């Protein structure tokens, strides 16, 4: 019996949907309708879930939880790299607290378990009159193994545990609210570094149309990936994607 999210025992600022096109889209609609922040949108299934670069995010009913959290951001400088790495660290910590499983954090926005992606994180800024005023944080987390398309079988995994999904997503939202203010001070970076998936691995990193091959040295003070290329030159990557890990 697959346990599904319901509205039962949820706080007023968490809205549960059984099926949505995308929790990110739904979160934007609710923000524009004036919903007070912070708030969360969670669903059992997405029909048009998306991740980085607009890629489809496989979101079947019942096997995972699909979440969007909307926060106001403080005025002034806001570091997206610290936000994304911070959210990853918070969710990894909650997963450990709930299940005893320690997942790895793959820069910049994925969680890994047994060398498979079990969660993706996406942050989108909301601009008002040219200023960043809110951020929407989307998280898709695979809890139970499911039948996945053949092209994804070597990439996607799951925690493969039975959890109370309502309690789980409440705990994630509570932890995000508690940790949010500390992200910009890098309070999470030691945790991220300790559980970083890529450190000491040889990778191919894509930054725009440039491909850099080298060994990952760790994560910097702004959540950037530190990479020493094959010629011995150091790079700090604030954006981009690690497309290949050379095991």
UniProtKB/TrEMBL annotation:
Assigned GO CC terms: cytoplasm
Signal peptide region: none
Keyword Ligase belongs to the record: yes
Entry's EC annotation: 6.3.4.15
Domain of life: Bacteria
Domain BPL/LPL catalytic: 1-184
One Pfam family matching this protein: BPL_LplA_LipB
Record InterPro entries: aa-tRNA-synth_II/BPL/LPL (IPR045864), Biotin_CoA_COase_ligase (IPR004408), BPL_LPL_catalytic (IPR004143)
The UniProt record lists the keyword Ligase: yes
Keywords, comma-separated and alphabetical: Ligase
Gene Ontology molecular functions: biotin--[biotin carboxyl-carrier protein] ligase activity; transferase activity
GO biological process terms held by the UniProt record: protein lipoylation
NCBIfam families per UniProt: birA_ligase
PANTHER family on file: BIOTIN PROTEIN LIGASE, BIOTIN--PROTEIN LIGASE
Official protein name in the record: Biotin--[acetyl-CoA-carboxylase] ligase
